[in-house]
Design goal:
Bound molecules: zinc ion
Helix content: 40-55%
Number of strands: 10
CATH class: Alpha Beta
CATH superfamily: Aldolase class I
Strand order of the largest sheet: 1-2-3-4-5-8-10
Strand content: 15-25%
Largest sheet: 7 strands, parallel
């Protein structure tokens, strides 16, 4: 089957009440393993590529490896760019057949973030591609992006950001952390903030990055409040 768009995948997931796993891929073995497991479990997949993975394997190789996997595994797959740093990398992925891109302008000022996100949205939507954006900043290390402290997402700014940019989903910061960062004790997540943003943007997909080390009961609370 061909690559799927997040819109179709998420609509079905919301309706049938399940989550979709997003997995970072950078070589053939990882792609084979995840796609075989997805097919066995009949679980739709988001396969995401970071700038580092794209540089390591080459964009064309990654796309063709996933297309090869789709010839064998009968499972819906979204191909997503993780943390695109600027318009050019997002455009290259849209042109190269990705069905979803993330523009991460969270390290810019609010106005600059709006501007770059809007530019990516206009280009991507012209090509039928979904856009995830980010507002607020996570602590931890994600390739070249590192931040010692979180800057939690302001709920009113989140609404303004979505309205002005037209992005399809929004990664927000409520206390999860990226990558190698280890929690001292249990993660403290700002569920009030998540609930407020969820209420201000009803039915809108909110994304929580850096959730790998979040305990299961927190994941259930996040799902309740509308996080992904
Ligand atoms: Zn992330």
């Amino acid at each position: 089957m061909p690559l799927t768009t997040p819109k179709a995948m998420f609509e079905r997931a919301y309706k049938e009440g399940y989550a979709v796993g997003a997995f970072n891929v950078n070589n053939m073995e990882i792609i084979q393993g995840i796609m075989q497991a997805g097919a066995e479990e009949q679980a739709p997949l988001i396969l995401q590529v970071s700038a580092g993975a794209r540089k390591y394997a080459g964009q064309h190789y990654i796309v063709k490896l996933i297309e090869a996997g789709l010839l064998e595994a009968d499972v819906p797959v979204v191909l997503h760019l993780d943390h695109g740093a600027d318009f050019d990398i997002c455009k290259a992925c849209v042109d190269g057949g990705f069905t979803s891109v993330m523009i991460d302008g969270s390290h810019h000022s609010f106005e600059e973030n709006v501007a770059v996100t809007k530019r990516v949205v206009e280009y991507a939507h012209d090509h039928g591609v979904w856009v995830e954006a980010e507002l607020g900043r996570l602590a931890g290390v994600e390739e070249h992006v590192s931040s010692e402290h979180s800057i939690y997402t302001d709920p009113d700014q989140a609404v303004e950001f979505v309205e002005r940019t037209g992005c399809d989903s929004l990664a927000i910061a409520i206390g999860t952390s990226h990558g190698a960062y280890k929690f001292k004790g249990e993660a403290k997540l700002d569920f009030d903030r998540l609930e407020t943003i969820g209420n201000l943007l009803p039915g809108y997909p909110l994304v929580l990055h850096g959730a790998s080390s979040v305990p299961q009961h927190f994941v259930e609370m996040c799902n309740k409040y509308g996080g992904q």
